[in-house]
Each structure stands twice: as C-alpha cells, then as structure tokens.
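Whether sequence alone determines local backbone shape is best considered at the level of individual chains. In the encoding step, the backbone of a single protein was reduced to a row of integers, each denoting a local shape. For completeness, the protein is quoted in full, as a sequence line and a line of structure tokens.
***
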Amino acid sequence: MTFTASDAEGHRAMALALRVGELLLGSGEATENVGGAMRRILEAYGLRHVEADVNLSAITLSHVPDDGRPATTAERRVRRRHPDYDRLIAVHHLVGEVATRELPLGETEERLRTITRRVRVYPDWAVVTALALISASAAVLIGGGLTVAAAAFVATVLGDRAGAWLGRRGVAEFFQLAVAAMFGSLVAVLLIAMRVPVEASAVVVGAVVALLPGRPLVACVQDGIAGEYVTATARLTEVVFIVAAVIAGIGATLAVAVRLGVPITVESVPSAPLTLAPPQLAGALGLSLTFAVALLVPPRYLLPGALGGGLIWLTFVWLARHGVPLIGATAIAAAVVGLLGTAYARRVRVPSAVFVIPAIGPLLPGSALYRGMLELSLDNVSAGALHLIEALSIAVGIGAGVIMGAEILRAFRGRGLARRIRPAARRTRGY
C-alpha cells in the first residue's frame, strides 16, 4: 500500500506516525528511537524521505515531494510525559508489526487507539506503594534497618499524597516534588529530635532516591551522545529542575531544623556499605523491583529488572573493593547492565529501558545529594558544593555507562554475543 503525503490517506499516515511518536516520547524513549519508529511507520505506508524533528515538547514531520507538489508539514505537541513501560512495549510491538507485514491503515489506527485506552497494568495504589518501597529498599541498602525502612515508607507515602493533592489543584510540579522531599527530611528530623536510636538520615536518603530522575537522565545522555543536542539540553533542564526541587525541599527542612537546634551532623549521614551482605543484596534487588513496578513494567518482565539491580550492585562493590574509584566503578557497573540489558531486550524484542532503567536504582546518588545539602545548611558551602558535584558526577556516570554498554553491543554486532541475538535484533532495530 502506497500513499502520498498530499492525499487523505497520506495525511492519516502522518497523523498516525505523530501519535506513535508522542506516545513513545511521553514514555521516556530516546529521540533517536522515536524518530526511527515514526520513519518506519511512514515507510510502511509508502511515505519515504520524510524528515522528523523531535524535541522534548513537540514532534514535527515534513515531506517535500520531488514532483513539485506542495510540501506537507504536520506537528504534534507532547503535553504529558508519564512513564508507562507497558504501553511503551505495546507501541513498539505495533511498530514492528507495521514494518514487517502490511497492516491496513485503519486497523493500525484502531489498535493504537486500543493501546491508548488500555487500563494501566497496575492500579494507582500499587504504584504509590511501589514508590514508597523504593525508599524503604534504599534505606535498607544503606544500612538503615527495618525501622528506618518503615519510616522511609511512611514519609514517601505522605510526600507523594501531598504532592498529588497539590497537583490536583494546579500547583506546578516543581513545588510538588519539593513538598515530597520535604516530608522525607521532616520525618528524619523528628526521629533525630526525639533521639530515636536509628540511622534517621537514611530516611532522607531513601526519599531522595525515590525522587531522583534516573529515567530522564539516561535519556538525556543518550540524546547527547546521539547528537540530538536540542532535546538533550531540554532533558538536562528537566533533570536540573527535578534535582533543584528535591534540594529545595530538603534544604528548607534542614535549615529550619538546624536553627531550631536539632543535633544534625554530617557524620550521621550513612553511605551504603560496600558489601554483599544479605541486607544490601535484598535492598538492591528490592529497589530495582519496586522501581520497575513504579514505571509500570509488565509483571512478566519484573524479574529481569530486579536481577539487573543485583548485578549492578555486585559489579559496583567488586570494582570498588579492587581499588577502582567510586565514579569509575559506577560507570563500569552501569555499562555492564547496559550491555547485558540491551542484549536481553533485543532477544525478547522489547525496549532496553524496560530492564536497564530499573537496574540503575541502587547506584543513584541519594547519600551524596543529602550530604551536600546538609553541608550547605550548616554553612559549609565549599564542602557542600563538592558533595553536590560528586552527586552530579555519579549521575552522569550512570547515564554514560548505560549508553556505553549499549554502544559496545552495537559496535560488535554480528559476532560474539551480538551474533547470538541477531535474528531478534533485525526485527527490532533501533529499539
């Protein structure tokens, strides 16, 4: 079936491609993959040489015919960006079907509408619980124990519900995140003020990990490496504002607590012990598992994501114990997960983010970020700035490592590990 961009069917094909691009981009897919998916849709319906311009808030398609007919340009705004990996997988499968066999345009449109209207794979209460369990798992990972994990769970639920309440009243997302971070640090301050004999600061670290933008960060680095600098800059701005909101919420609470005489010290801020003891392994596995649920990963793919969290923690600890600097160990561990996660994703024909993004959870720099904010609250500006730079470096190392792993697989495609997955890779190229 072949259409032209100037006829009605061609317009429908372009509208379909724009809707596919909006769904993919809104779910956190990289710009390169979004553009590739739209081009595959259009080529399947005979519209070749269409230029796709993708940025974080808008998608544009432009077709200039060689025969002198008027050019056709269409644009769609991307207003909502909420991770839904179940829908992301469904859209990728639909794109693959359209590219490999001739689906009628009307059938493709109807299937896309069905995907858009489908009920979320987990109910809202399960997503909120998963978000709180991310905090609890992070608290266990850094040695906080079960009491601190329970406190982190409660703090995150309260913060999330408060943020949702603000969101329903039209308050900007920046302030929603700031309030959510404020609750985590407030619970820790109360535990310290009441002299409860626990690692109270681990509550804040857990809450921070649940709020850090791991998914946008990886997409930002991927877009930058792919040369999509406009979108990479927009994603970086998004990441900066999310982190700034978290910092603002924590900083406001700590500043008030310090001035009220609450005995908060930098020495009380825990760091994850470099050990493979059961609590740390359980924390890493639980963090990645609950991270996957929060991203709406379908149940059949939850286990690989959780195992990825255990793998990244095992690799990180092994490298750190053998003298590799922490930032280097973080990047290498992320590269291992990026390589193996991408290889497995190609084998089962799903986007690599489904496995890779949950797996990076155990290495997100919650402790460094909290330590930096505490130093600033105690007027140790230089020390605080260094810790914040350390947190930023770790975050960039995670993103770069993940992409490096995927690029290694791409570079050696056709032999070794890549040869064994070549049949699946051909069907899902670019995804």
In short: The chain has 18 helices and three strands. Strands lie at 51-54, 58-63, 72-77.
